[in-house]
Design goal:
The protein is mostly beta strands. The chain has a domain of 103 residues: OB fold (Dihydrolipoamide Acetyltransferase, E2P) (Beta Barrel), CATH 2.40.50. Helix content is 11%, strand content 31%. The chain contains three helices and eight strands; from the N terminus they run αβαββαβββββ. Strands 1, 2, 3, 4, 5, 6, 7 and 8 form an eight-stranded antiparallel beta sheet that branches. The chain is globular and about 45 Å long.
């Protein structure tokens, strides 16, 4: 995933697209388009306070269509945001805690509870753990291979690394 940059030179030769922007440019571009404050170069220390938020994880590309912004097709799966109950959008960094959201479309556009922290000056969400909400009750999400009795927090390729069989999405209510 790279964002091609054009470079014009002093000899009026055609622009080159061989240079690639750093990996973090695309998420920052989306945040800027959405009007979010992005303070990546801020001297402030990153927040270590754990937050619990509720909302739905959505693809930013779908939201940006309303503003006539066409996102490159190869970038669409990598740009998600949490739309909180009060309508705020927080771009999500793909980490181990959020990986299943990026790999399994069945988890998108559903009520979720996420636990994590804000980074980059409070403009980006780093998810440590998430739960689906069914009738307001948090459910633990995991993937299970019945044959091998293997449990994973994300589906990877949707198949068990042991037997090659399917990994079943399971949602189990948290004990009260």
């Amino acid at each position: 995933m790279g964002l091609a940059l054009s470079h014009a030179n002093s000899r009026n030769q055609p622009a080159s697209t061989s240079s690639r922007a750093p990996w973090f440019v695309l998420p920052l571009l989306f945040a800027a388009i959405l009007g979010l404050e992005v303070a990546v170069w801020s001297a402030a220390k990153p927040s270590t306070a754990t937050l619990t938020l509720e909302g739905q994880v959505v693809k930013l590309a779908e939201l940006l269509k309303a503003d006539d912004v066409q996102v490159d097709a190869d970038a669409v799966p990598f740009v998600l945001a949490l739309r909180t109950q009060d309508g705020k959008l927080l771009p999500i960094v793909k980490t181990l805690g959020s990986r299943a959201l990026f790999q399994d479309g069945r988890l998108l556009n559903r009520p979720l509870q996420v636990r994590g922290r804000l980074a980059a000056g409070g403009s980006v969400l780093v998810i440590d753990r998430f739960y689906t909400l069914k009738n307001g009750v948090p459910h633990e999400v995991y993937y299970w291979c019945e044959t091998c009795a293997i449990r994973r927090d994300y589906p990877e390729k949707g198949v068990c690394e042991c037997c090659g069989g399917p990994m079943e999405l399971r949602e189990v209510p948290l004990p009260r």
